[in-house]
Every structure is written in C-alpha cells, then in structure tokens.
Amino acid sequence: MSRKRRPTYESNAHRATQDSAAERLGEYLGVGIKSTPKYCAYDWEVYGSAKGEPLLAIAEFKRRRKPRGAYPTLMISADKIMRCRACAAERGVSFWLVIEWDDGLGIWDDDGRELESEMGGRTFATRDAGDIEQVVYIPVADFNELPGFSF
After folding, report:
1. Which of 25, 53, 114, 123 is most enclosed, with most CB atoms within 10 A?
2. Does domain 12-70+78-114 have CATH number 3.40.50.970?
3. Rounded CA gap, 107 and 97, in Å?
4. Which of 27, 112, 91, 95 lies closest to 59, judged by CA?
C-alpha cells in the first residue's frame, strides 16, 4: 500500500533559509552539512568534515517565527519523527532536529524516547486536511542552545 503524498509547501525561499542555516551551522560546529533532495524524509546529512566523511547524523531543519521561549514545547508531525528515526537507524547514525527560532538556534539529539503525542497541527491557517494529524511535543528545554551562534 503506498502512502498518498501531501502537497508540498516548501518554496525556494524556504530552501534558501535552510541552506543558509546549514552553511552557518556547519561552520559553527566544524562539520560538513549536505542538503538532501526535495522529497527526502530529512533535510540534511551531517558529516565529520567538510570533505564528507564520516556520516555523523541526519537532520531535519525547521524555522519557527517565534522566540525560543514562546511555547514550552515544539510541535512536529509524529510521522516526520518516525520516518527520520527509521532513516537514522537504517544508516546507524544520530537524528538531529534543528530549530531556528527568532532569537537562537537549538539542536535536539534524538534519544529515542517516547514523546507526548496527540492529534493536532496547523489550525490557524490550515492548508489542507493533512495539516491536522498525529503530532508529538518535544520540550524546548531539551534542545541544546548554541551559545555564540550568530545569524
């Protein structure tokens, strides 16, 4: 059984924001970050060097137009987390969720624990029926803030 593909809302501007964050984060951490093709389950591959070896992690990038402390948790699609976890396990690497808030950047290094889950999603500006789905909540306090990271 194949899954019905949802509409894609990722624009060229979204990709530009993501690419800029990857470049800055790679320089900050001293790693190589390679963007993945548009329909990949995750956004980046993180390598131990700019030359591309070894693969350390896969990462999903999200931009939230709020300050880090606006909400106590970050809501994200449960399916997204599940697919990224499966890809990371298959490749034998870590899964990172990288969030750029208005006032900083944080990395959540997935430890595989069960996350609080419920039906939810985008309700203020729903784009399609798939915007309401099973979501998980990750405590913002669980994200490692990058001190000195500049935009």
Report:
1. 25
2. no
3. 6
4. 95
